[in-house]
Amino acid sequence: MAVGNEEIRDFLNRVADALDREAWDEFLSMCAPGFEYRVTAHSYELDEDMIWLIHDLDGLRHLFDVLPEQLGRRGTRMLRHVSFAGIEPGEAEGQFVATSKVLAVLTSPEGVSELFAAGRYVDVVDAAGAAPRLLRRETRLDTRELGIGSHVPI
Question: What is the CATH number of domain 5-141?
Answer without folding.
Answer: 3.10.450.50
